[in-house]
Amino acid sequence: QVQVVESGGGLVQAGGSLTLSCAASGSIQHINAMAWYRQAPGNRRELVASIHYSGTINYADSVKGRFTISRDSAENTVTLQMSSLTSEDTAVYYCNANIRDRTMWTQEYWGQGTQVTVSS
Known about the structure:
By secondary structure, this protein is mostly beta strands. Helix content is 0%, strand content 62%.
């Protein structure tokens, strides 16, 4: 069994900062990539940022220069540092992990989501 759990959401004023954390645990053999997605009401879930095991990082254009994704491979965690937040960043943020478990089965795992609300 593999679990992915987010933490760190909340309410922040526009222009402020917030950090989200995600931890993967359980029967993990290798993490191929971890990512953050978000979904605002009425919108599709969209990729915010991703980090591959090689270190390759990708950001959505809307967050470039404001958000930073980082990882701790030893702890199987990924962090999303968000700054200069606007109301457009209000959404439920989901952690996603592409994990090969100890049976050598690879699949996507999702966290339960954490709400980020930016007040103007």
